């Protein structure tokens, strides 16, 4: 899942070397925390959050029902 997120996000940003994903496993699911360079934050979120919503849609669809735990994607500053 981490590779999928990186494949989607890196072409969108100007500083792909600053794209990092931290994974936190909790009792209610797995949270992928995406952090990017501050200048790229707007590109990842998009107007009215449309890009972020699209990224989440693809990630959640890829996870599907094959995962036992719920998947969350969080964009952090």
Cα Rg: 12 Å
Q: Biggest sheet, open or closed, and with what strands and sense? A: 3 strands, mixed
Class of secondary structure makeup? alpha+beta
CATH architecture: 2-Layer Sandwich
Give the tally of structural domains: 1
- The proportion of residues forming helix, as a percent range, comes to 25-40%
Shape: globular
Overall pLDDT confidence: 92
CATH topology: GMP Synthetase, Chain A, domain 3
**Broad CATH class:** Alpha Beta
Distance between the termini: 21 Å
* Unreliable residue runs: none
Number of helices: 3
The order of strands across the largest sheet is 1-2-3
Number of strands: 3
Helix-strand string: HEEHHE
* Strand coverage percent: 25-35%
User: What is the fourth-level CATH superfamily?
Assistant: K homology (KH) domain
InterPro entries: KH_dom-like_a/b, KH_sf_prok-type, KhpA
Subunit structure: Forms a complex with KhpB.
Function: A probable RNA chaperone. Forms a complex with KhpB which binds to cellular RNA and controls its expression. Plays a role in peptidoglycan (PG) homeostasis and cell length regulation.
Protein name: RNA-binding protein KhpA
Question: How would you sum up this structure, described in words?
Answer:
Belongs to the KhpA RNA-binding protein family. It is found in: Cytoplasm. Keywords: Cell shape, Cell wall biogenesis/degradation, Chaperone, Cytoplasm, RNA-binding. This is RNA-binding protein KhpA. With 77 residues, this protein is an alpha+beta fold. It has one domain (2-76): GMP Synthetase, Chain A, domain 3. 35% of the residues lie in helices and 26% in strands. It contains 3 helices and 3 strands; from the N terminus they run H-E-E-H-H-E. It has helices spanning 2-9, 41-45, 50-63; strands at 20-25, 29-35, 70-76. Strands 1-2-3 form a 3-stranded mixed sheet, with helices on one face. It is globular.
């Amino acid at each position: 899942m981490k590779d999928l997120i990186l494949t989607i996000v890196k072409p969108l940003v100007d500083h792909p070397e600053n794209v990092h994903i931290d994974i936190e496993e909790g009792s209610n699911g797995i949270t992928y925390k995406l952090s990017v360079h501050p200048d790229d934050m707007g590109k990842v979120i998009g107007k009215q959050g449309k890009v972020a919503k699209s990224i989440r849609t693809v990630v959640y669809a890829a996870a599907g029902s094959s995962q036992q735990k719920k998947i969350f994607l969080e964009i952090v500053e």
